[in-house]
């Protein structure tokens, strides 16, 4: 594929994953580690680098899942990425968790039109509709994802309203469909429910060659939902 060496990490959902692109090969570790991301992510990084005999400063760039996802998970991923990249002065590639699942749909099912929805709790989903486009770069042909419906947080009903305006064959990915939309009739369901760092690497490669990198100091998590109103318990201020 390329002599590029990239490390990808993701903690934005209940999945915790690390993947390495090195000498054209991808290796990865994936766990469901809800509420233990902070304990697992660094040992997983050490393990996958150790297996390849690499040090952090030998990477070309660090890739991370920038959200959307759980507030805590997105913060953990952004903080770890920032700390690692800043420590050895690595450029960073921020990848959408929704786009990572679309990439998984392409690689597993050859799907080129994907409806992505992550359960956002409180009867809402993080949603986008993505369409694959092939682009030719200096090292060959790659896939890029175009937003047909922009990333947003919305109700399941609003998702279906927007999805019903689309034409063609679409595949669904993400926990949002299982949580709220299991009876949807707008697209074919897939078994892909969680993002993985493995597929973030495939998204990141063309971004690297398009110079779509940022510095560690520029890392910003993407929550989509900026304000959350919590019901106060009776008798509590």
Automatic annotation (TrEMBL):
Keywords, in A-Z order: Cytoplasm, tRNA processing
Pfam families noted in UniProt: TsaD
InterPro entries the record matches: ATPase_NBD, Gcp-like_dom, T6A_TsaB
One GO-annotated biological process of the protein: tRNA threonylcarbamoyladenosine modification
Localisation per UniProt entry: Cytoplasm
GO cellular component: cytosol
Residues annotated as domain Gcp-like: 31-188
PANTHER family: TRNA N6-ADENOSINE THREONYLCARBAMOYLTRANSFERASE, TRNA THREONYLCARBAMOYLADENOSINE BIOSYNTHESIS PROTEIN TSAB
Annotated protein name in UniProt: tRNA threonylcarbamoyladenosine biosynthesis protein TsaB
Lineage: Bacteria, Pseudomonadati, Pseudomonadota, Gammaproteobacteria, Pasteurellales
